[in-house]
Batch of 3 targets.
Target 1
Amino acid sequence: MDKNYWITKEPINPGDCIDKVVRNEAGAVNTFMGTVREFTKGKRTLFLEYQAYVPMAEKKLEQIGDEIKEKWGNAEIAIVHRIGRLEITDIAVAIAVSTPHRADAFDASRYAIERIKEMVPIWKKEHWEDGEKWLGDQKENISYEAKIPSKEEMRDD
Amino acid sequence: MDKNYWITKEPINPGDCIDKVVRNEAGAVNTFMGTVREFTKGKRTLFLEYQAYVPMAEKKLEQIGDEIKEKWGNAEIAIVHRIGRLEITDIAVAIAVSTPHRADAFDASRYAIERIKEMVPIWKKEHWEDGEKWLGDQKENISYEAKIPSKEEMRDD
C-alpha cells in the first residue's frame, strides 16, 4: 500500500501503519486501534458490517492527517479503516502518529479517532442475536434506521 | 514470549504486545512506542545503548500493569523494553493497553510510559558525534555522570 490513508477489505496489520510513520525525527509513535467488542450495554454482538463511500472516506482520512500536521507541526500519520464483515476482536481502524515527543503523539492520535468518528463516511451495521441495525455516523448522533445509506453512499469500489 | 512484561535484546515487534491484549471485551487498543530520535536539542545522536537490571525491570513493568488494572478496572497490558545497542528509529519500548472504551486505553497507555520513565531500572547511554554519556533515570532527574551504574546494576542476564 503506497498511500498513508486507505480503506481495505483485508484484515488490518497495525505494523503497516507504524512502518509508514517511524522516522529519524520521531521519538514517539502512538497507535490507536478500534476492535470489535463482543458486548455493548449488555447486548452481545455477533459480528459487524462496515460500508464506506471509499473515495470520499480516503479523502476525509487524508484531511484529518492534514489537520494534525497543521495543529502539531512535525507529525507523520497513517490511517487505515476496514470495511466488510468483521468478527469479534477484528481491528476496524488503525491510526499511527509519530512526533518528536510523546505528548503530541498521544494528543494527535486521540484527535484522529474523534475526527474519524465525526466526519468520515463509514457506516456500521450491528448484528446481534435478535436483530440487526444500521448505525449512522459513528458518534451515533444520526440514526440510519429511517434512512439506510443508499447504494451510492455505500459503494466500496 | 509467554510473559506480558519483558526485557529483550532483540528488535521489538509491536504486534507481539498488541496480540497479547486484543480480546472479546476490548473495543480499544492503544500502543505507545518510544523510538530512537536522531536529534535532541540540536545534537545528533549516533546510537543509544540501554542496560537494565533485568529481573527488577521486569518486576517493575509488571507492577505498572497492576497499577493500571487497579486504576482502570477492565484493562489488559503488555510492555516490552529493549536493551543493548539501538540505532536511529529502533523501537526502545512498546506498550499496548486494551480496554472496553477508548478514553481509558489512551489514559492508561500514557500512564504506563510516564511510570516506566520514573521507576524502571533501565539506563541509557547516549552516543553523540563528540562524546557519550550515561543518563540516569529516564526523566533525567538523576545524572549518572558521577555515578555510572555498577556492573551489578547493569547486568542484563
Target 2
Amino acid sequence: MTDQRRAARAPAATGQRPTGPPAAPPLQRAGADPAADVRPTREAQPTREVLAGYLHERAGELLRGLRAHDEAAGSAETAAEAAEAVRLLRRSARRICGTLQTFRPLLDTGWSDRVGAELRWLAEVLAKEHEYAARLDRLLTALHRLSAPAAGPDGESAGSVEARTGRPGVGAAKAGALLERQLTLARTRAHSAALRALGSGRFHAVADEIAVLASEAPLDEQSADRPAALTLRPLAELTHRRFAEAVDALPHGPEALAHTLTGTEGRHDAGWHHVRHLARQTRYALEVLEGPRPTAPGPGADTGSTTPLHAALVLVGRHLTRHRDAAEAAAAASAAGRTPRIAPATAYALGVLHADQRHEVEAARLAFCRTWPPAGDR
Amino acid sequence: MTDQRRAARAPAATGQRPTGPPAAPPLQRAGADPAADVRPTREAQPTREVLAGYLHERAGELLRGLRAHDEAAGSAETAAEAAEAVRLLRRSARRICGTLQTFRPLLDTGWSDRVGAELRWLAEVLAKEHEYAARLDRLLTALHRLSAPAAGPDGESAGSVEARTGRPGVGAAKAGALLERQLTLARTRAHSAALRALGSGRFHAVADEIAVLASEAPLDEQSADRPAALTLRPLAELTHRRFAEAVDALPHGPEALAHTLTGTEGRHDAGWHHVRHLARQTRYALEVLEGPRPTAPGPGADTGSTTPLHAALVLVGRHLTRHRDAAEAAAAASAAGRTPRIAPATAYALGVLHADQRHEVEAARLAFCRTWPPAGDR
C-alpha cells in the first residue's frame, strides 16, 4: 500500500494504521435504506417475475439499440445517433452479462454461459472505438495541462518566460501529433471491427438469442416460483462478498511512479481492474433486486440511485474507471515513446506524459480508498 | 492549493476546507514546554551574555572548522575530514548570519549587514559542491527506483518480463550516465570555486571579522544590559511571525505535474524556499534564546531539541529541504533533457525522471502541510 493510500485511510491515526483496504459494507444495512419500504415488496415477488422481468427489459433495450444503430449507421450526419445507439447496446450487453453471471445457478447454465460469453465479446468489440477516442482526449488534455504556462505567484501569466526559453512547447506539440496519429488509426480500425462484428453471423446468432430473451428467460424451474428474497438476494450477497474480498486482496502497491521505466509499473493494475469489474457486477445485481435505474441517455444515466450502497458503487465506479483509463493512457504514451526515430523533445514529453498518467493512476487509487467503504460503514 | 494539500489538511471535513495553510503556533505555549523551567533563567540574563555568548560560540566553531579544513584539504586521504570541516563551517556561518539578521536592532547594524552578507556568500559558495553531489545521488536513486522491475502481485519478480521486453533499462542507464557526467563536472567546478574562495582575500577579511567576533560582539550598548526577555524574545517572536505569514501566503499551487513541460512549473517554488529560509531563521533564533543545540558532527546534529516548537521546526525543515532538493533535481533532469543529440530513449527516461521529481516536490508540500502546524497547535 502506498503512503498516499494509507494517509487517505487514516489521516489522523497515529501508529494504528490498517494494513489493508477495509471490508465492504453489508449489502443491506438495517434502517439506513430509504428504499427499504419498497424493496421487500419486490423481493417477495417470485424469482421469475423479478429476474426474467429484468432480463426482458435489458434485452428489449439491446434490441432497440440495435435498431437505432441500423438506422443511424453509415452516414456522417447521424454519427452521434449511431454512437449513442452503440452506447445503449454496450450498456444492455454488460448488464445482461453481469446478471447471467451473478444469477447463473437460477438459469439454464449452459445457455447462460454461452450467451454470456458472446455478449462479453460483443461489448468488448463495441467498446474499443469509444475507448481509443477517450484515451486520445485524455492524453491531449493532459499534454495541454502539462504544457500550459503557469501563472506566477502574483497571477501573472508566464507567457513571456516561455517565449524567452522558446522550445518547451515543441515536444508537447509533436507528442500530441504523434498520439493523435496513432490513436486515430487505432480508433478507425476499431470502428471497422465494430461494424464488421455487427454484420457478422456470430452477432446475428447472439441477436437471435437476445430476441428470445426479450420475451422468455430460460429460468431453472425449481427456483422460478420461490420469492426473490430466497433466491436472488443470496446470490447478490455472494457477488458483493466477492467484491469486498477483492478489495481486501488489493496489492499493497509500490510508491507512485516506481518502476515507470521498466514497463512493469502496471503489474498491480489488474487487481484494481478486477475490483472495478466486481463493483459493477454488484451494482447490476442490486439493480435486479431493487428495480432498474432510469435509462435516460447520456453518461448521467447511472446516477438514479435508490439506495446508498448503489450510489456508493456508482461513485467508486467512477474512480475505478478513471484508474483504468489512466493506466491505459499511460501505456499508450509509453508505446508512443517507443516509436522509432522520434525527436528527443518528443520522447521527453511522452516520458513526462507517461509519468503524469501513472500519477493519475495513484490519484484514482487514493480517491477510491477515500470513498470506500462509504462514510456510514467505516 | 492542490487537492493533495487540501486532503492532507482536512481529510474528513466535508465542504468546510480551509483555503490556506494554517497559521503557525505561538512561539511560546503556556505550560506545554518541558524547557519552561530552564528558559526563564536564561531569558533573565543580560542580552550581552545571551546574544554575545551565542555568537562567540558559533564564531569559535567556524574557526575550528576553518582550521580543520586547512589541515585536511588537498589530500584524497583526508577528503572526508575536509568535507566534514566544510559542513561545520557552513553550519556556523548560517547560524551567525541568521542571528545577525534576527537581532539586527541590538547590534552595530552597519557591521552586522556587512558581515552577514559576506557569510551568506561564503555559505553559498561552500554549499554548492555538496549540493551537486546530493543532487546526483537523488537522481540516480530515483532512476534506480523507476527502472527496478516491479514484483508481481504474488511477489514474484518481473525480471523475466523485463528480459523479454528488452529495452526499457537502456534509456535509464544512458540518462544516469548523462546526469553523472553533467553533475560531476558541476561538482568539480564547485569544489575548485570553494577552494578558491577559501584562499581569497575576501575570505580572509571575513575570517578576521569572525576572529574578533569569537571574543567580542559589537552590541548596541543601550540594550546590552537589559534582560534577554525584553530584547531578544520580541525579535525572535517577530521572525516567527514572519515565518507564519510566509506560510499563510504560500501560493495555492497548481495540480501536481501541471506545467511540467513549459519550464514554468517551478514558479511557485520560490514561496516555499522562502518559507524554508524563515523556518531556519526561527529555529536559529530559538537556539539563541534557549541555548545552543549539541554540535555533534553528522546530519543528526540538529535533533537535540529541548522544546516542541524547535523539534517541529527541525521536522518541517526536513520536508522543506526535501522540497528544495526535489525542485532542483527536477530542474537538473529537465536541463539534461535539453542536451543536444541525445537518444530518444534517454530523453524519455529524463522526462519520466523530471515528472518523478516534480511529484516529489508535491509530496514534500503535502508532508509539510501534514506536519505544520504541530498537532497540539491546530
Target 3
Amino acid sequence: MQIFVNDPDFIVEDMLKGFTAAHPEVALSTLNERVVTIKDKKKKVGVITGGGSGHEPAFLGYVGEGMLDAVAIGEIFASPPAQAFLDAMIEADNGHGVACLFGNYAGDNMNVKMAIQMAEDEDIEVKYVVATDDIASSPKETREKRHGIAGGYFMWKVGGAKAAAGGTLDEVIATAQKVVDRTRSICVGVNPCTIPAVGTPNFMIDPETMEFGIGHHGETGIEKKALGSAKEIAIEMTEAILTDFEFDESKKLAVMISGLGSTMLMEQYVICGQVLETLKEKGHQVEKVYVGNFVTSLDMGGISLTIVDLDEEIIELLEAEGQATGLKNY
Amino acid sequence: MQIFVNDPDFIVEDMLKGFTAAHPEVALSTLNERVVTIKDKKKKVGVITGGGSGHEPAFLGYVGEGMLDAVAIGEIFASPPAQAFLDAMIEADNGHGVACLFGNYAGDNMNVKMAIQMAEDEDIEVKYVVATDDIASSPKETREKRHGIAGGYFMWKVGGAKAAAGGTLDEVIATAQKVVDRTRSICVGVNPCTIPAVGTPNFMIDPETMEFGIGHHGETGIEKKALGSAKEIAIEMTEAILTDFEFDESKKLAVMISGLGSTMLMEQYVICGQVLETLKEKGHQVEKVYVGNFVTSLDMGGISLTIVDLDEEIIELLEAEGQATGLKNY
C-alpha cells in the first residue's frame, strides 16, 4: 500500500494540523499540540477521551457539541502520555468535574490513572468509565480485561449527551457505565494494516483466510480460519455476540457495522443486511443502525459488529443533537 | 485484497438489501430492484441521479430529505439501463417535473436521454444537468467532455436543497448548472481498485509512482510520475484546479477532500491541511471544508480534491437541512 504522507514520523502532527484547519467551527488546537478541544465550551460536566492515533474518525471526530469536550491524541497505536490526558481534563473542566471515557488498553489505563492523580492537585474531580466491548479479547468470566473497540462510540455519544443535558458527574458516569455494560463487539480481519513509519504490515493474514475476533491493533483473535462468505461471517459474528449477551427475551437493539479502514462501504452493507436478518429471525427488534467507518485500524481490511441492548434513556441520548465531525447525519 | 462478499455477481443486490434494511426511515426499495426512493415524498420538483455502483456512499447515500428523491443503481462501474432511470423519474415525479443530475459518462448520458424520451410518453417533464468537474478528463477547450466525479456532491446538495425550498424545475436546473460551472476536481491514484467479480486489479500503479489525474474507474490520468510527498501532491492538485479556474481575484471557496476507498482519513487530513494552506497563501477564503469518503472508486487508494467557487445562494443551499445517510454532520 502506498499512502499520502510527508515524514511518516510526523503523520499525526500533520493530521492534527489538517483537522483543526478543516473544522475551526468545531475543534481547536491547544497549547499541548496533542490535545484538541471543543470550540464552544459549555458550563457542564466535561467529557473527554484519548487514545492512540490510527482509529480515525475516533477520537478527534467525536469532539463536538453533545459529545466530547477534549481528546488526548497519542502516536499511532500508542497511548497519549499522562500529561496529555491531564491537559485534556484541564481543557474540559469548568468546575463541574470531568468524565474520562476511554477504551480498555494497558497504556491508556495507566496514563489515565496517573492523570487523575495529577488532576486532583489541580482541584479537578475526574471519574472514568472504561469501554470493554470486544468479546474476543477476554472470556466472559474476565470481562473487565476486555478491550474497548467501536462500542466506545456509544459510550461517548450517550455520556456526552447526558452531560449536555445537564447531568451531574455521577449521572454521566452511571449512564456511560450502563451503556458499556450493555454493549458487545467483535471484529473479523481479512487484510493486515501498516503503520506508516514502519512501512510493512505489522501482522499477516494468509490468502483465503480471515482472523475471527482480531483486535483493533491486529491482536490475535479467537481463530484463524478459511474466509467464509459474507453471510456466514455475519451470522457467526452476530451469534457470537448474542451468545455472550445470553438474552432471555426479545430485545430492542442498536447495531453498528464499522469498517476497519480499507473495507468498502458496499461490503459493510452486505454484512449489515445479513446481521439484521439474523437478529430479526432470533426475534429481536433493531431500533437503530449505523454503517460506516466509525472506529478504524489504519488501513486494515475488516469489519466490526457492535450490538447495544437499548433502553429508553439510551435511545433518547443517542437521538439527542450532536455536532461532531465523525457523527453521521442520522 | 480479500473482501466480504457472497456471490460477487450479486454484490450490488446484497448491498441494496442491506442499505434499505439499515435505513428504512430514509430510503425504500421499489418494484424495480435497482431503484431506491426516498421514504417521505414531498410535493416539489423531484431530484434524481443514477450511475454505476462502486462509488458508495454515492449515489444511494444521497437519497434523503433535501437531497435526492430517487436513484437508479447500475452494476459496478456500469450505467443503469434507461428503464432504471425512467423508473427513478416516475418515483420522483409528483407533477412538478424531475431534475436528473448525473455525472458525465457515455453510458449514463445515453441512458438518461433515452429515459427522458420515455418519460415524455408518461407526461413527466424531465430536465437534466451533467457534472463535468474532473479537469483531468479533457482539456478546458472541451470542458463539456469532462467526466463528473466528487463534484457531483455539490450539484446534488444544492439542487436538492433548491427543490426542497420550493424552486421550480427551471430554477433547480439553473442552480445545479451554476454549481457545476463553478466546480472543479482532480484525483491522484496510488493503488488500483478491484471489481469483485473480476478479482484482480483492473489497472496497475507501479510501486513508488502515482497517477496524477486518474479517473474514477481507473481511467488514464494526466501523468504517471514518482510518488511525491503529501505536501507536493496537495500543492500540485490545488494549483491544477486554480489554473483551470483562472480566477482574477480572491474568492470564497468550498473544499472537498474525498478518499477513493482505501485511503485513510488520516491521510485525507494531511492532504487537506496543505490544500488549505496553499489556498490561503493565494489569497482565497475557504468557507466550507468537507473531508471523508464522499464519492469513492471501490477500494482504490487515492484522493480527489474538489473546489467550488461559492456565492451566497450556494452557501445557503449547502447549509440547508439535509437528511441523507451519506451527508456528514456538518
